[in-house]
Each structure stands twice: as structure tokens, then as C-alpha cells.
UniProtKB/TrEMBL annotation:
NCBIfam families according to UniProt: rluA_subfam
Enzyme class: isomerase
Annotated EC: 5.4.99.-
Pfam family, one: PseudoU_synth_2
CDD domains: PseudoU_synth_RluA_like (cd02869), S4 (cd00165)
Family: Belongs to the pseudouridine synthase RluA family.
Domain RNA-binding S4: 30-95
Keyword Calcium: no
Organism: Pedobacter fastidiosus
Entries under PANTHER family matching the protein: MITOCHONDRIAL RNA PSEUDOURIDINE SYNTHASE (PTHR21600), RIBOSOMAL LARGE SUBUNIT PSEUDOURIDINE SYNTHASE D (PTHR21600:SF44)
Biological function: Responsible for synthesis of pseudouridine from uracil.
Isomerase found in the keyword field: yes
Full protein name: Pseudouridine synthase
Amino acid sequence: MENSVELQESEDQELYEHLKIIVDKGQSLLRIDKFLMIRVENASRNRIQNAIDAGNVLVNKKQIKASYKVKPFDEISIVLPHPPRDTEVYPEDIPIEIIYEDSDLLLVNKTAGMVVHPGFNNYTGTLVNALAFHFEKLPQLPGNDGRPGLVHRIDKDTSGLLLISKNEKSITLLARQFFDHSITRKYIALVWGDIENDGTVTGYIGRSLKDRRIMDIYDTEEKGKWSVTHYKVLERLGYVTLISCELETGRTHQIRAHMQHIGHPLFNDAMYGGDKILKGTTFNKYKQFVENCFELLPRQALHAQSLGFIHPTTKEYVHFESPLPPDFKAALTKWRNYIVTS
């Protein structure tokens, strides 16, 4: 529901994206068009070039040409038109694992690597394409075009439970529970480092000023939305820790950004720095061991394990769980064996 509320903001916000970037102190001289293609999410050369030609890219509050070379500490302001959305969903015969279904809703156990809904560069092969094939008609939230049935989302490379609505009544009632943060959601994560105690991470979460693809935690509400994650230690495995995370809010990349913020990035989370050896020894044998773990679990170690909510028709609390997938279990087993034998 939070995402659909965002989509219902002003038409100006819907059509244009306002960005501000402060160039890092270590940035080497680089043409601004090339620099922006690296730093701006979903940015094509034409999109950047058109913005520069239209005078919509300012450096230190002055218009520039595409040949301008960015320098450390330059302040870049950009107004970019959003790429046009294809809101039509094309049915595709893609297998999905349904763990529960009734006349109002279904729960899908999403595999890692599957995009949830169509979007820029991902108009086919998504979970929503699969749902459109398996179900004749799913309801639509206002402002949620192209995402029938969805009341929440999980990242492409996160596995686990996703709740889908099958009619207008249920999507409204379920979306309200997500908006009110009354749905209970628990994730299992493997993170770098030895976490000593259970804890809570809070802060205002918003787009990073350095990289639009990732989220940062800020201390003022002007820069983001309030977010809360409670975590508990499940198992200590030397240089990594298995934890459970309960979401009080549901923001984009919340667990990934929160755990990086406290110095414990998710294992093999490339976007948040977890795909490097952050803890451990300098021995080549250990380095090879970690690389082997990365191969077993070639994505961030995050699994949406459980969902609990009030059923829209029965009004009773229901709870569902999903076991860890094979890739996650294989990496865990390898870490457990390493701890025993080292």
C-alpha cells in the first residue's frame, strides 16, 4: 500500500525525477554524460543527452554541455523524464509455487532471481506475468498499474513468501494492513560479522545521493521515510551470523540497507558491499572457502520466511512459513562445517 500511495502523488512527480549528486572527492575527470549513465538508475545515453540538451542538467547551478568533465565536489542537479511505462501485463506460462490458495488470496513461494512485477527492462518473465497466465483476472490497487494482485513486493534476488490478492475486497483490506504495519513479516538473513546481541535498527531511509540504485539511512525525515527493523541472533558461525529480522515498516531494501548501516552487510549482497570478504583470515584456503560459498549462494542471503495477517473474509489471524531454499541451506551447511573443522 505504501508503494501505491507513492504512486498517487502529483502528476509532476509521476512524470519527472529530480536528482542531486555531490561528486566524490576521489572522482577522476570524466565526461558528465558517461558519469550520469553510471550513477543514475535506468539512464540511457539518449535520456541523459536529451536532458543535457534541454538544459535540465546543472553543475554548480550552471548549464553545461555533454563534454563537460566532472570534478571532485561538483554539485550536479538533474531533472529527468521517467521512461514510459508499459502497463499492459502479458500472460506467460511460467511455473510458480503456490503454498496456499483460497477464493480471496494466495501465497507464492518466490524463487530468487524472479522479478516480481514488470518494469523498466523487465516487461516479461516476472511473477506478475505468471500470475496473469494462471488467473483470469486479478484486482488492481489505485496507482498500481501493471501490478495486478500485488499488495507488497520483495526484491528480485530475495526468496520467500509473497501475498497476492484475488479480488477487490481482499486487496483493499490486505493493503490497509500493510499500510498500518499490522502484518507480521519475518526474514532470515546471513550477515557478515559476529553480532553480539539482539537489536533494532531505525532511521529515515531514502535513495543514496551517491548511487540511486541503493538506499541510505538518514537522520532527518526530509531525506527519507521512517523505518524500523528488529533483529535476533539465531546462530553464530564465526565470521558470519544467522539472524531473523522482523519488519515494523516495509521500505525498499530495508533489511539490506539497515544491516549495512550497522556494519553487518548481508552475505553476498553485491549492491550493499557484502560480496567481498569482510571478516576472516588472510589465508588463501579461507578465501577459496568464501568464494565457494558465494557460488553456492549467488545472491544476497535473504529469505522471506513468514507472513501473518488477518484474513480478509474470516477475520481470523493466519500465519504461513516457507523453509529456507536449497542455495541458502547449502551455504549455511558449508559455514557450519567450516566452524567445526577450523
